[in-house]
Amino acid sequence: MIHLDRLTDIDTLIAELPAPDAAAQSAARRRQSSLTKPPGSLGRLEELAEFMAGWRATARPEITNAQALIFAGNHGICAQGVNAFPQSVTAQMVQNFEAGGAAINQLCQTSGAELSVIALEQLAPTQDFTAGNAMTEAQVLSALNRGAAAVQSDTQVLILGEMGIGNSTVAAALCAALFGGSTAKWVGPGTGSNADGMTRKMTAVEAGLVRHASLIGNPLAILQAFGGHEQVAICGAILAARM
To answer: Residue 183 to residues 140, 166, 174, 191, 207: CA-CA distances in angstroms?
Structure first.
C-alpha cells in the first residue's frame, strides 16, 4: 500500500520502484523451450508468460486473483462542446456497471476477475483546461491516493479502465502534451462525434497545448493541467501495482 502526502513524494517513489525478476524470466523461457511445441508457436502468449514470470518472481506464475478497476469522473472541458452526450451519462454508466449491465461486467464474469467501480467527484468536474489547470494540486493528490488505495495487496493481474464524458478529449490532450505529434493524430471521435464535434475537440486540445506549453517535459504538471480525476486515479493504481 502506498500513500502520498505531497506530490513531490512521487519522485522518491519512482526511484524505488522494483524491477522484474530476470532469473524468473529466464527460467520461464527455458521451460518454454522444453515444451512439446515449435518455438514461438504460441506467439504473444509466450511473451506474456515471460512478462508475468518476471513480475511475479516465479517461473510458473498462476493467476488466482485478478482485479478490474473502473474509475469514473467528469470533465470541465465539456464546456467547449467536445462531448456528443451529456455529462449525466457518466453517472448512468456507473449505475450500469454496478448493476452488471456493461460489457466489462461480462468479461470479468467470464474470466473470474473481481470488478470494482469507483466514482470520483461526480458532482465536481474538473475545470476547463483551455482556461487554466484542470485540477488543483490537492485534487491530483487525492485522486492518486484513491487510485492507489483501490489496489488489493494480493492482486496478481490488474485491469484498469475509466468512464467519463469528455474523457477522449482529455486523453488526446495528455498524449499530445506527453508524446508530441499533430493534434489530428491524437483526437478521435470518442463515443461518436461528428465532423463539427471533431473540430471542436481539436480546437480545444490545441488551445490547451498553447496555454500549458511551458509545462511540456513535466509529466506531473501536465497531468494536473489536463486532468481528469479518473486518469489521475489510474496513475495512482499503476504506481501501487508496480510497488
So the answer is: 25, 16, 11, 18, 10
Each of the 243 residues of the chain gets a pLDDT tens digit; together they read 789 999 989 989 999 999 999 999 999 999 998 999 998 899 999 999 999 999 999 999 999 999 999 999 999 999 999 998 999 999 999 999 999 999 999 999 999 999 999 999 877 899 999 999 999 999 999 999 999 999 999 999 999 999 999 999 999 999 999 999 999 999 999 888 899 999 999 999 999 999 999 999 999 999 999 999 999 999 999 999 999
d(CA 154, CA 143): 22
CA dihedral 75, 80, 85, 88 (to 10 degrees): 40
Residue ranges of domains in the chain, CATH in brackets: 1-62 (1.10.1610.10), 65-242 (3.40.50.10210)
Q: Are 193 and 80 in contact (CB under 8 A)?
A: no
d(CA 101, CA 103): 7
Beta strands in 75-165 (DSSP E): 114-119, 157-163
Q: What's the whole-model pTM score?
A: 0.93
Q: What are phi and psi of 163, to 5 degrees?
A: -140, 135
Of 197, 196, 202, residue with least CA distance to 184:
202
Beta pairing partners, 115? 68
DSSP 70: E
